[in-house]
Design goal:
With about 525 residues, this protein is of the alpha+beta class. The protein is built from 17 helices and 11 strands. The chain has helices spanning about 35-45, 55-60, 65-80, 105-125, 135-140, 145-155, 170-185, 205-210, 220-230, 230-245, 250-265, 275-280, 285-295, 300-315, 345-355, 370-375, 375-385; strands at about 365-370, 390-395, 400-405, 420-425, 430-435, 440, 460, 465-470, 475-480, 485, 505-515. Strand 9 (about 475-480) and strand 10 (about 485) form a beta hairpin.
Length: about 525
């Protein structure tokens, strides 16, 4: 079947529902240097997923840099040898398991995909986060051989204008957030009116989200409408355009999906955030109509997108995810995974963005966990006394996650064993991670606060308790058995209680240190 099909040998022919027989004939593809003609050719091409033009079209993207072919062969031999492949490629640290979307690939296709990602990880060490790399690589392998697919990916990664693939967590967040800003400004018609009316401001869910400060959450995963929900034949046509025009195509497609959804559903009184995902899976229009709707949206030039992303980046870097207190930073190393039972890898990255810049260059290490070491403050001291700094992570029985960054060695408590006294510095902070994410730095690092003795009580510890934050109340306190704790507003961090109840019970406590390589 593979010989009669346009698809590569990496496609699962038995398990797929794709049309397998070749369709159409080769075409005279305009040169990519003739931008206006080539763009028109791509946008108006009515090619189904089994059209013979696609491999030819996609290979043309990589022809601008044939040196990638030699590099790929050399790296493949260096990493995997000539006699066979390493069967268990580790997932590159810039990816999450949820990013590994494989569509219709068979076992050989999955191996080819992991081979490409592994080589990318070795050749492009500056990539710290690139969630769209696996699905795009997978799609390329449906039509191209392993080497050609790599060449296309490498070409996208090396684009000097950064039009194609975001390669850091902050740039990907800017990409997502910029779409949310577009939603608030544009309708599918291209008029400068809100498409945000998809959610009526009178709807109960909108008002609830507004009160919770999470209005944008409805659109937080918009890119996955395209890569996870959109039918394969539509997605392939979107990729045709993306490979030439870049990620602004995704903005257009996302807005078009919202516009079509609005027309189909009308104004809804109560909005289910999952309904757009459900709608996209069975989108009631042709591929041509979706693309036509997307490309008739005006005011989405490169200049418009750059202006918007610049604004979004400034907002993110100065928000609670970045420079809350002047110590946040956007550039991060690719963090290695730790065996945490509380934190996802994404939450770990959030914590690392909140660390002082000179500390965030180190890798994390799990020093203590109640699951392994038991619920004992003395054991925590024994495991962590010599480490500076440490991050205390608490998960309550209500599944809330919060904690503290402690920037002094806990063994300093022994200097004043007879009296409970405070130590530490203004780099300490409290934080929440779930259900809300927020950093609470020392008020002395913020403007508008008077620094007093009671607002400089950072850390205190003895055999009975550990306290972070003082002044009227303890910001966070754990008892000797590590099974109970309290959290209240304190003068040092001006924080609200870190969880829904001032008095909480602990499910798991972990302490993370910084590895000094």
């Amino acid at each position: 079947m593979a010989a009669e099909s346009v698809y590569s040998a990496y496609v699962d022919y038995e398990g797929t529902t794709l049309p397998l027989t070749k369709f159409g004939e080769g075409a005279d593809i305009p040169p990519m240097t003739d931008h206006k003609r080539f763009k028109k050719f791509i946008r108006e091409g009515k090619w189904p997923s089994n059209h013979v033009i696609r491999p030819q079209l996609w290979r043309q993207v990589a022809e601008t840099n044939l040196s990638h072919s030699m590099v790929f062969k050399e790296m493949k031999e260096s990493l995997f040898g000539t006699s066979g492949r390493e069967l268990n490629h580790k997932l590159p640290i810039f990816l999450e398991k949820s990013h590994m979307i494989t569509y219709h690939l068979n076992e050989s296709g999955l191996m080819a995909m992991r081979t490409i990602l592994t080589i990318i990880a070795h050749l492009y060490p500056d990539i710290t986060y690139c969630p769209l790399l696996p699905p795009i690589t997978s799609l390329l392998l449906h039509y191209l051989d392993e080497e050609s697919a790599y060449m296309v990916v490498a070409t996208l990664l090396e684009d000097k204008e950064g039009m194609f693939l975001d390669q850091t967590r902050i740039s990907f967040e800017v990409f997502l957030t910029s779409f949310i800003e577009l939603v608030k400004k544009y309708d599918v018609s291209g008029r400068r009116v809100p498409c945000f009316s998809v959610i009526k401001q009178t709807s109960k869910s909108y008002i609830a989200a507004q009160h919770a400060g999470n209005v944008d959450l409805a659109y937080a995963n918009w890119i996955w409408w395209i890569f996870k929900d959109l039918p394969f034949s539509y997605l392939i046509r979107v990729l045709d355009c993306f490979l030439y025009e870049g990620s602004k195509v995704f903005y257009r497609i996302g807005l078009a999906i919202l516009g079509l959804y609005k027309k189909h559903e009308g104004d809804v009184e109560d909005y289910d955030p999952n309904s757009i995902s459900t709608f996209t899976k069975v989108i009631p229009c042709s591929e041509e109509k979706l693309l036509k709707s997307a490309f008739k949206i005006k005011y989405l030039s490169k200049h418009d997108i750059r202006k918007l992303t610049s604004k979004s980046k400034s907002s993110i870097v100065t928000s609670e995810y970045g420079q809350v207190d002047g110590t946040g930073h956007a550039d991060m190393i690719a963090l290695e995974r730790i065996n945490s039972s509380i934190l996802s890898h994404e939450q770990l990255h959030t914590l690392w963005r909140w660390l002082p810049q000179r500390k965030a260059i180190h890798q994390p290490v799990l020093l203590f966990t109640t699951e392994q070491h038991g619920f004992s403050l003395q054991t925590l001291y024994a495991k962590c006394d010599q480490h500076d700094p440490i991050i205390i992570v608490i998960e309550t029985l209500d599944d809330e996650v919060f904690g503290a960054y402690v920037c002094s060695k806990l063994q300093l408590r022994r200097k004043h064993e007879k009296n409970l006294s405070y130590f530490g510095t203004g780099e300490c902070f409290l934080y929440c991670l779930y259900p809300n994410q927020k950093k609470f730095p020392w008020i002395g690092s913020l403007s508008g606060f008077n620094i007093t003795h009671s607002s400089s009580l950072f850390l205190s510890a003895d055999n009975e308790r550990i306290i972070i934050g003082g002044g009227q109340n303890c910001g966070l306190q754990l008892d000797a058995n590590l099974d109970h704790g309290t959290t209240r507003k304190c003068e040092t961090f001006n924080n609200p209680p870190l969880c829904s109840n001032d008095f909480f019970r602990c499910k798991i406590i972990e302490v993370i240190g910084l590895r000094d390589d």
